[in-house]
## 1
Amino acid sequence: MQISKSDASQNPESHESQDVIRFEKSLQELRDLRSQLHHAANHCETTFLNTTQKHMVVESTKEYLCRAVVSVVDHLGCVSANLNSSISNSCAFSEAELRINCLKQRLLSCEKYAHRVALTRVKWAAYLPKHHHRYLSKPITSVEKSNEDIVRDSKTEASTKILMARHESEAAQLPLSFHTCTDQKSTSAENLWPGISAEKGDPHSGDDIYI
């Protein structure tokens, strides 16, 4: 028995053929059981019609039916077991197919993670334009900001003009003697400067005096 098991494990084709043979044998037994049940039903019917002891015939028929149901269930379990073993052996995947499926699963998990990261970066905007940006006018906020800048610039220009007019009015109100005094002081300082440079011997002066 050990040798046969080792041979079957080494030869998967022989193992599959044995499963097929078992499955066919279990199906044949189930067919034979069906024919036996038909014959038993006919025999019970004829005996029940021809005999006077009908109560005994009914009791024997009940016992036979119980045994027949048990045998049918047993045969059905055998058929299903053989069918499952043959399907499991015939649907075996190779190592290459398993590796390919594993790689596909990894790629799918990576794609799901990438989509999840991309969704976290997406921000919801209250204003969603339906047209191209070249065909859209400036938003109201930018227009209000530009208007505020224009008003601010006009206010600064008006304040500078007011300050210049105030300085001009103050200069006009000063007496004439103030202007003449400032002019005389500037001219006297200019006249004294060449003399001082001549005394000190400034090389940049026009008339140098050498001792």
Note: The mean pLDDT is 69.
## 2
Amino acid sequence: MSASGLKIEVNDPQISRYRPMVIIADDNLTGTSGYQRAMWEMKRNNAESKKATAKVQGWQRDDGSLWLPNELVVLDAPDLGIEGEERLIVDVEFSLDDQGGTVTTLTLMHRDAFDEPPEPLDENGKVSSKKSKSKKKAKKSDKDNIKEFDDFKKQ
């Protein structure tokens, strides 16, 4: 690592073995923004690792509507240590066969997997306004000063 490099370490208490992850920054990171990014990556990876698949009888919910992605449901699976956790439906598969009838397979993930990464903070701890800066105007070239002549006379 160079002298100008920044190294941020966070530990996930749910992971017992050493699993380093190196992320190359896509923006200028400070200590605070680097820590926020590392915490976001940890939460996202943790949520993605707890994906669940549930099969339910029928294609419709109790209210008669179809199961759809991007809806929150409560998952109760005491055998897996999951009791009353809210999960997001990320995939829905409807199936029909002569043995099981109509079955819906739901892929569920924790909603933390879909949080947006944190916005960078300035030195005062406020959200940086880098995105709100006005766009630079394009530079004029010499071609912009040349006028076109349509009524050229042929000799």
Note: The first helix runs from residue 31 to 49.
## 3
Amino acid sequence: MSTEQPTVAEAAPPPTAAAVAPTPSDSAAVHIRAPRQYKPAQAAESSSSPPLEWLHRSWTVTHSTLKRDLVAYQSKGSTKVKTVSGADTAVAAGGGDLTAWNWRGSGLLKPISCPWEMIGWGERVDAEGRTEKWAVTWFAKTLFTEEGLDVYTDRREGMSEELEGLILAALATVGVEPLQQLVAKNMQKVAIDLAAKPEEAKA
């Protein structure tokens, strides 16, 4: 999640001010809200968003409801890493709310766009004292993809098991029946190949 989509599709309650990142003392729970499409009032009440510098990093997709919704991915049995590039634009003018975005592809994919939202984000400190950043995004249905959800971590090797369990449990009780069914039926763990180098690959 940067101004370009993440390389490799990833707890604390959201802070009360957009300019303040989560702190280790806030890591008691994972909070995930419903997308604006389903519960606009809840989205407005939970409008706090991470600072832009918090988003500017490489993220690893650990779970997804789409089998091929990866910006950088490697097919099983193949050594080639393929990439899809595009740009994200914040929906809110002035960049005050960084939870609602619109993605547009580049090159041959430029006609394709997709609105998406960050419906959960935060940081969690594990038993070893390491901080793990996480995020959950929802994306709308497009001409080529169904509506879906992605889970991210800033750890290249993947998400810790404890945080994974908390996030999946929160998604299962988000309060939107279509999304809860989507999680139950389609949410899959993404295979992570640490030997892959997507930054050296081309589409």
Note: Residues 26-200 form a domain with the Lipocalin fold (CATH 2.40.128).
